[in-house]
Amino acid sequence: MTLAVTPATGMTTLPAAGTNRRPLVIGLDVAIGASGVAGEGWTDHVRCTTTNTHSRMAYQLDGLATFYRNAEYVVLEGAAYSKNNQGADALAAMRWMVRHDLWKRRIPYVVITPSKRITYATGSTVHKDEHGVRLKGPALKGLVRSAVEERYGIRTEGVCRYDEADAYVLLAMALDHLGHELAEVPPSHARALVGCDWSTYDKAVAR
């Protein structure tokens, strides 16, 4: 796709919200080992099996860039600040490397928290099994994956299926905000759009 560029700023010229043309949006669930990627009607991933952190970061950044280099808008998952996972520093660095690369390319982006992604997909961040135990980890990811298949007809498969499903939810959120809803979602789900910082896109349109 050839993008129009404003000569004075180099910023991609974007369609305003509510216009007929859908912007090229890419959803990213960024990680160091396996990152999910999504565009309208498809999902993919970038997976690195090496153990050297620097090599993994370089592989991820190069691989992800092949998907978003022509994007008009990118939506990424941010950190879950309630967690204290080992390796969180490296993951935060990876996410910032992607964000910095987007900034250099003058591609506007938004960062969505995991809780808002889950709410948009399932209607709530709290889900329990038949015994009243709160679902988390793969069980919760499975709910999101199932929601993506049921609502959008996108069935993700393989070892990166959860990452790809997460990326598709992020994509759907951005398009919904921009007035290009991929599928109707109830208010309990759509409330996740409130409170997200969509300003980078709005600023890009204003230019």
How would you describe what is shown here?
With 207 residues, the chain is of the alpha/beta class. It has a single domain, classed as Ribonuclease H-like superfamily/Ribonuclease H (Nucleotidyltransferase, domain 5), CATH 3.30.420.10. It is built from 7 helices and 5 strands.
> What's the CATH class label?
Alpha Beta
Q: Identify the CATH architecture.
A: 2-Layer Sandwich
Strand content: 5-15%
Radius of gyration (Å): 17 Å
Uncertain stretches of 5 or more adjacent residues: 1-12
Q: What is the H/E string?
A: EEEHEHEHHHHH
Q: Overall 3D geometry?
A: globular
Please tally the helical runs, counting DSSP H or I stretches of 4 or more residues.
Answer: 7
Q: Quickly give the structural class.
A: alpha/beta
Global mean pLDDT: 85
Biggest sheet record = 5 strands, mixed
The counted number of beta strands is 5
- CATH superfamily membership, which one? Ribonuclease H-like superfamily/Ribonuclease H
CA-CA gap between termini: 20 Å
> What proportion of the residues is helical, as a percent range?
40-55%
Major sheet strand order: 3-2-1-4-5
CATH overall fold name: Nucleotidyltransferase, domain 5
Number of domains: 1
